[in-house]
Amino acid sequence: MAKLVVSEFVSVDGVMEDPGGSEGWARGGWVFQFNRGDEGDRFKHEELMSADALLLGRKTYEGFAAAWPSRQDEAGFADKMNGMRKYVVSNTLKNPEWNNTTKLVHLLIENDLVDEMRLMVFPVVLGLGLRLFSDSPHAWPFRLLDSRSVGDEGVLVVRYEPKREKK
């Protein structure tokens, strides 16, 4: 069975809204304030190349679908993005038109379906915006798998797995 990995860009205060700036949010584009360096780029490239499919929220899907179909690169990133299967978590997306897209309407963490969390934490406090984890009646403990700094501006790559009760 495939491993389900959640990979997110997140600020120090947990905001994940509009990291690339394509959604028009006043504080959007915050990831581009920092250099994640060759090691950070390599991490994202290896992460994508090892994936079998993408699971995207509607806004990320719409941004990617507008950008990636027309891109080409020598590293194979664009070919991989365009060719792999995509699943969209959305209640509002009616007509996914990017190659290999299917809608999926499940809350992964709440249903204990996530095998690993990969966070690229950027050293910025945004103060407001959509957060990675909203208020929840549950607490989800995780076990640290790996952490390291990439680039020269304090960007962290942190990997966790759910700390599940042993049966």
Record field, number of beta strands: 7
Q: pLDDT below 50 for ≥5 consecutive residues: which ranges?
A: none
CATH superfamily membership, which one?
Dihydrofolate Reductase, subunit A
- Beta strand %: 25-35%
Globally, the shape reads: globular
Mean of pLDDT:
87
The helix content is: 10-25%
Query: Gyration radius, to the nearest Å?
Result: 16 Å
Number of domains: 1
CATH architecture: 3-Layer(aba) Sandwich
What would CATH call the class?
Answer: Alpha Beta
N-end to C-end Cα span: 20 Å
Largest sheet: 4 strands, mixed
Structure explained in plain terms:
This protein has a single domain, classed as 3-Layer(aba) Sandwich (Dihydrofolate Reductase, subunit A), CATH 3.40.430.10. Helices cover 18% and strands 26% of the residues. It has 3 helices and 7 strands. A hairpin with a 4-residue loop joins strand 6 (142-150) and strand 7. It is globular and about 45 Å long. 14% of the residues are buried.
SSE inventory with pairings:
Layout: E1 5-11, H1 37-49, E2 53-57, H2 58-67, H3 77-83, E3 85-89, E4 101-103, E5 116-122, E6 142-150, E7 155-162
Parallel strand pairs: 1-5, 2-3, 3-4
Antiparallel strand pairs: 5-7, 6-7
Condensed summary:
By secondary structure, the chain is an alpha/beta fold. Helices cover 18% and strands 26% of the residues. The protein has a four-stranded mixed sheet with strand order 1-5-7-6. The chain has a three-stranded parallel sheet with strand order 2-3-4.
